[in-house]
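Example 3.2
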Amino acid sequence: MPGSPAPNGLGVVRARRALGVFRLLIAALEVIALIGNFQYVLGFRFFATANFFSYFTVQSAFAAVATLGVAGAFALLAPRDPPWLGIVRTMVTVYVLVSGIVFALIVTQASTHDYRVDVPWSDTLLHFVVPALAVIAWTADSIIAVNPPVPWSTVGWVLVYPSAWLVYTLARGADVGWYPYFFLDEAQVGGPVGVALYCALVLVIFVTLTAGLVAVNRWLQRAGRSRRERGRRAPRTGTPGRRGRRAGEPARQR
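Structure, written as tokens:
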């Protein structure tokens, strides 16, 4: 029943608590990365502070801190997460993953667009380390399999925020003449068609990653529940059956 951790077993409760601590540690690491990255960009003489908060990476990092903090509290204090949290966790995990993929793409493409991209320790944390840890935490939750399965509707919901961010970024870029990523600048990708193609590619990545995570979650959830169900049905060792007890009672045999 909801609110009762007993049916899940002591091992599951301990696993949930360990996962809660892990979630909070990832959130703390993300905060360190954000602070370090902000200090790094302040070293650029002509960098506008408002631009820092316009990066999808930075916004998704803030979302990750909030989501991991809430999820960590639930894992420590409750037997399971509410259904909405599984949807939000999956979407935010996809956001930080896409941020890392896009950043890696930008780094590899930098030389062909006549600019250099440095990768300080804060960017390494933001784009590579934290996303990897977030995937580990997300997978661990699926293996524990006490939360509701992530619904397939998440694949549609995941596009809402990136689409809104894209509209805002294109409108702001046209106004201030600055874009957080080269593929949003028409001058660098051959006009609006180039921008559209890159954006379509990124949206496909969003959908593909989300569908993959939802499928993996649902498969791991079924496997985990089946494993626990088999454990409940298995006979306990060291517990004699009814006939065995009667055979061991000589007084009743007389």
